[in-house]
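Shipment paperwork, digital attachment
Item: protein structure file
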Amino acid sequence: MPTIFVLCALLLSACTTRPPGIGSPVDWSNLQNWESDNHGDVWDGFLKSCEKLGKVRWREVCELAENSENMSDAEARAFFEAHFEVHPVYAEGGQTEGLITGYYEPLLKGSREPSEEFRYPLYGLPEDLLIVELGGVYPQLKGLRLRGKLVGNKVVPYHDRAQLHDNPELLRGAEILWVNSLVDVFFLHVQGSGRVRLTDGTTVAVGYAGQNGHPYQSIGRVLIEMGELEKDEVTLFTIKDWLKANPERLSEVLAKNPSYVFFELKEDQAEGPVGSLNVALTPARSVAVDRSVIPLGAPVWLQTTLPDERQSPFDRLMLAQDTGGAIKGHVRADVFWGRGDEAEMLAGLMKQQGRIFVLLPKGYPLAE
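Attachment content:
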């Protein structure tokens, strides 16, 4: 083929490749099994999202929603179809599929006082942790935060997981509870919130209060690179089993994830944990996303499968009400499954491929 034709072909390919991010509106018929979902199940959660969506672009549609309580499935579906448009989300190279995982609200055993059994602390925000809102100086960085500590007159990175583990004095006085398993502490950090059953029989909730500013590193990936687990066998349960079977290497492996999470006590836990949007999450209807791609609070249509033997379809309307250190990328989502054994099973096994569509109010400017 002559060089000029090769060049033209390459240029045409480059021009027709969709950029990553939210695409132009498509027809509702692109949503697989849209009409068979129970749309009314998401209505209360959508009203909660509206309480936090104060932008002009959301105000009109949220005011209409707030005047329409107790919607049936058919009425809720008609509302979304009348006031929203469907936007597919694309990854690099125009890919439409990405990784869909799950998380849940774990239950730990703990105490308000340390003891030989309960010797692993959960920490609240330390007093020396600085959080700098970068958007106050650089508007283009709105929503981004710098975390660190002050040394002299300089802000330096905060202590990573290994430093905090090796030197308990660094967080002395910030303890809020003590639990009986370092492995459970680590996975509470991964989930971001949970409950702790205390020695007096009561249960308290702990929620995400902050993080040390270091990037999240998957321990599953670490164990694969070490040759300890095969890629296709990595789940929450195989990782836990390996860590418990190798206590002499526990600190070494956990330190590979420098990210460290701080918590706060949440005495009222009736509605479940609160996500990044600052509303209570709804099991199997709330999802964590990368907020740099998908507007926090937006309804999203998820097309994926369940981690069962049949790979059963899981196509439903969700709400982008949370974020997470590991949830980065364009077509990337983390389904909140709630609490209990079934929620743990689904969250622990879920690593499916799936598609994401964002529902945005008609005329919503994608450049916003």
